[in-house]
Structure to design on (712 residues):
């Protein structure tokens, strides 16, 4: 079994801690370790570092290598540019197939929070068993706890069977991010799970599926495949990538395929997609505050403060997000942290690129 | 005419910009100049620097000398410790009387905001004329614009006459800080003015008044007087000051004296006693924000941001005070900036003295 960790993205939603050169998975906002370090740590009981591949962009490769010294350098695959998840996964699948034609690969995002790592590995092992025959595309769904409109949903169909004691379902339909009302209906019906973006399949199965549903992409990947491991690899990647369709594996493959199976993940999951989400998933003091670093508060409630080298002092405020860095400071209403993106756009528009 | 500027105080209310070593009057929070620099600049059309005395504590003398290079070093009087305004003014009065037994002296706080400097000097000249005969203690009242409970009030009595075209009133009563209801009544009656803490009198007149109403203080000052300008000056100050009563000139003299006159000041005055007050007196952008330094905002209203070397970015917030410094940052609800004092007390209690 191989693990493919997708580590792309600009991570503007965690500005000012996340920057062009430091997307979310490279930050230590959840613990002393960075998020990708935690992601890798969590997998080591299952696979050795040599079986972990990381797909990223040129900007972040050096920092990834620094943070993950046990991952062999050749396991860090560099896309010339981000083209969404389908090309990224396709590239990794060809890479894995060359190493081991019968290999199962698990595709995992770099930047998710999982609180029960043991259960996570149980489910991953079961998914690998379900995927091993090569007939199915297996995905891991998350039992929804709220009518989230920021996630895609999978509708469970018939129970297909079990793998290592975990139930495996057929997928009746794949739904894109719903509106609030639809999300509430999904939650009420009980047969919908969140699409976690975690997939398990054989390299051959996903390459076949791309061939069936995304033939343009398959053609490009076939050109890349012939160059993988040769002197021409970089040149061909540079040449082919700009012409690949920029499309997600959800939209491009999973919504169309009829051989999708799903396992339910109950291992305490969050994609921690914003400062708001970080407050949500973090342990709070009796006033509802999450305080990291050197912080002094009086009369302050339900706020998230991420301090660094400086003292951050709050008085008489509530529902705030305050994030300090060496050169920039964010103060944002909690519950409104999608506005961070607005700020980043504003800085870009005003040419304040040193802060991006 | 001499000017005596009272430059004491810890200035905790402007934390984190104000510190033990940098009280409010040493800060450049109103303009490019520090507040005491503005205070002195405003007086220079009236008196040369040699006629300006500054009374301060040991901690701030060097910084004052640095900020005010035109003021002769011997004009900076150092109190061994703060004992409220009556000893401070008494010390200065003895100093002035030695220089010129018939001199008029104006006593001014170091840290007030005055928007119409020309009118201010008109009123000061008129007050000096009213004080020159030496029969009266003259004070400058401010026409109240709101039922402030943070100021003392003077009740105007009969009109005494005019000086340089300015009306001069007798004072019927001196009122300490009133409650809200009383302040509203004062405002409605129209014959009350705020006590600005600005006084004009001959040195002899205030020394006489201290002799009459504060004999203990007068005795201590008499001992100091014999040592002023001698080698013993510092030693005697150190010896006498701890035994002086710590009392304000308002409570100790002005409330008791029956020879107080008042002129109405209409020169745009504020004591700028807090971050809240700084927002109040500052020009605002169309969203009601006062933004100083490198600041980016989106969806932000009625807030005060004082940035320094770092970018401060606000999103989706209102009624906030955000003040950045090199080593500490304040985020406080606007309208609640008395809590800054709470924070300073908290830091002191927790031993975080490096931030005080």
């Amino acid at each position: 079994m191989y693990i493919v960790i997708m580590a792309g993205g600009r991570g503007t939603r965690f500005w000012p801690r996340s920057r062009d050169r430091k997307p979310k998975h490279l930050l230590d906002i959840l613990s002393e370790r960075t998020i990708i370090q935690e992601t890798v740590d969590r997998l080591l009981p299952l696979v050795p570092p040599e079986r972990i591949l990381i797909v990223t962009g040129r900007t972040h490769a050096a920092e990834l290598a620094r943070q993950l010294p046990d991952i062999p350098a050749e396991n860090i695959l560099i896309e010339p540019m981000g083209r969404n998840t389908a090309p990224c996964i396709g590239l990794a699948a060809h890479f894995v197939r060359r190493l081991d034609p019968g290999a199962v690969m698990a595709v995992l995002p770099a930047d998710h929070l999982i609180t029960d790592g043991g259960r996570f590995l149980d489910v991953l092992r079961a998914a690998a068993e379900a995927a091993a025959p090569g007939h199915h595309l297996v995905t891991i769904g998350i039992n929804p706890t709220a009518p989230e409109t920021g996630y895609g949903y999978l509708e469970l169909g018939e129970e297909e069977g079990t793998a290592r004691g975990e139930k495996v379902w057929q997928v009746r339909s794949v739904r894109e991010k719903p509106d609030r009302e639809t999300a509430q209906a999904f939650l009420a019906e009980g047969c919908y799970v969140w699409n976690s973006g975690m997939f398990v399949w054989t390299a051959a199965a996903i390459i076949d599926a791309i061939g069936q549903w995304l033939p343009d992409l398959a053609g490009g990947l076939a050109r890349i495949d012939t160059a993988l491991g040769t002197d021409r690899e970089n040149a061909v990647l540079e040449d082919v990538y700009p012409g690949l369709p920029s499309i997600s594996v959800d939209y491009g493959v999973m919504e169309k395929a009829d051989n999708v199976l799903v396992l339910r993940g109950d291992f305490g999951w969050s994609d921690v997609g914003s400062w708001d989400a970080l407050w949500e998933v973090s342990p709070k003091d009796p006033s509802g505050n999450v305080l990291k670093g050197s912080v002094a508060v009086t009369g302050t409630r339900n706020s998230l403060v991420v301090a660094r080298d400086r003292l951050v002092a709050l008085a008489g405020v509530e529902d705030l997000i305050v994030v300090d860095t060496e050169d920039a400071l964010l103060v944002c209403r909690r519950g409104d942290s999608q506005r961070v993106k607005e700020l980043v756009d504003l800085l870009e528009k005003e040419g304040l690129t040193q802060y991006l």
